[in-house]
Amino acid sequence: MANVIEVRDIIKTYQLGGSPVQVLKGVSMTVTSGEMVALMGASGSGKTTLMNILGCLDRPTSGSYKLDGREIATMSVAQRAKVRNEKIGFVFQNFNLLPRTTALENVLLPMSYAQGAPAGAKLRRRGVEMLEKVGLGDRVDHHPSQLSGGQQQRVAIARALINNPTLLLADEPTGNLDSRTSEEVLRMFQQLNTEQHLTVLLVTHAPEVAHHATRVIHIKDGLIESGSPQFAPVGQSSSSAGVT
Amino acid sequence: MPAITATAVTSVKALRRNPLRSALTTLGIIIGIASVIAMVQIGEGSSAAIKQTIKNMGANTLIIFPGAAASGGVSFGGGSAVTLTSADAAAIARDCPSVSAAAPVVNARMQLVHGSQNWVPQFLVGSTPAYFKVRDWKLKSGRFFNNDDVRNANEVCVLGQTDVKALFPSGRPLGKIILVQQVPLRVIGVLKRKGANMMGMDQDDIVVLPWTTLKYRISGSALMNQNQNAASSSTTTFSPSQLYPQTSQNLYPAVSSVQAADTPNPVSFPNVNNIQVATPDSAALPQAMAEINALLRQRHHLLPGQPDDFNIRDLAEISHALGKTSTLMTDLLTGVALISLVVGGVGIMNIMLVSVTERTREIGLRMALGAKPTDILSQFIIEAVVLCLFGGAMGILIGQLLSTVVQSVFHWPIQVSMPAVVASFVVSAVVGITFGYYPAWKASRLDPIEALRYE
User: Fold this and answer.
1) pTM (predicted TM-score)
2) CB contact under 8 A, B370 and A78
3) Containing domain of residue B45, as a range?
């Protein structure tokens, strides 16, 4: 299996009040195609910084990051925007749907920045297909305010999938959901992972979320603490939660 | 460019998502453009009214006087040459492209009689129908005389308001007969009031009749102040004054044959006192003067180096005043327009800046989903331009409405100005780009990570 994510010795340093603060201190990790990986860590562990770099929203101070075989660390802002558009599907904790905009238009939002995207009826059909896939075929013209939290997150997932991404990057996707809808959303990720071999990276601090993944990577104080390439049993993830 | 089209669609969608905010944003432009349109239309209306007034005074007219005749080294003064004819007037109207009308004029000062009333008008004018066009006379009732009346030297006349009052205290002059030097003239038309001219002379104290009638039936000579030679000339035309001589016996001895041979009677020239010429507007005056000069020199067979036997006069003072007035008016309006548009533009920039802050999360999301900084930049600029163009369109409509209301309520003249409408649209777009640029630039420089986390 090809490596979707290949990170080598990533260091990220911020300037805080004139003094440099090293947030990532040489992170190396790989995620192969078709994996569903959970990235776990407490706040301040560098988890968010690593996620931003993996999501091509930020650049490492040094080190190499290859996404789908392409070096990201040296790319310009516009090039990274193109990579985000073509390779990555984002799912956020707070859904980030545009208010007063229909579910369908929210789903089609990435397409307006895609090159060679279909137009008109063809585009609309693709958006409706995506909404049907997440079970919202009857909510196409609803505004986010008319949808429940779980439904909103499913719209966001449909939006993340519309560009056929290589990597689905979910940042605390269940943080704003109750346990029942959380379970629904996570099962949807699992389903996408097993049925369509979509590579999923779940960023979370909650062990019950992480145990849906096939592998858990722990990050602590800017370093990868543990990350078994094998399936992580429930017991291990809960014990590691105790460590952090 | 499909990318721009997509961005434009995005922008319009973003604007429609918050119609109230969009409407408030564009309000400044709506008010700005509306006031500009209303101002310009009312301004151009009054400017046109002023121009019309000045035109009534004759700012776009030229007067061609005959030059000086001389006999044996004795000049007879300006206007004494007899070379200016009605044929010249016809030729000027026909051959000079900058001339809209040309009328030959024969002047006289004679007494009018109707019943027990009599009056000597300030202007007793013999001319052609073109005269009414040149002097911009309007009819109050009846009709102008026509070219047939001129050709046949018909005994008809058109009266000004002052003469109507003087001769017809009871009113109704149409169809009545007035006498001029015992020649009966039928009143066929009454002119509209024009008021005093620049010199304070009453322009309504006027009688206009075919020049042929005045010259050949009434005065019997072209000029009242004719030179000595011409004064002794007589026309072969029948004239009542010859039937009933008013003069006493000849005090001087009869002219001997030798004397007669020495001073032959000149042939009767169909000369006129002056030719009045109108141009479409005062700007065409210099061109018209050049054309007329060339034409008349050719018609009068003047060799190069020979002096003109005519003088062309324009009312330079009036046209100067006209130019100054309209320039001042335009400058004033441009100033007002600029100020209100800048205010509108600042309003747009203000709300766009607020909007960028308010929509930080949206911008962050768009960037995360693959929007390049240039995409965000163009989206916000297009939003501003669309708002401004919409505001411009609304402003044009409201301004139109406003000036129409002003016209019907205050009875001010207005004039629809196409250039103002086009300029408003262009200025709206420019304002949109100018004042939309900074907020858009700010939006495009946002860090997507920060923007996504913005609460």
Assistant:
1) 0.64
2) no
3) 2-54+322-453
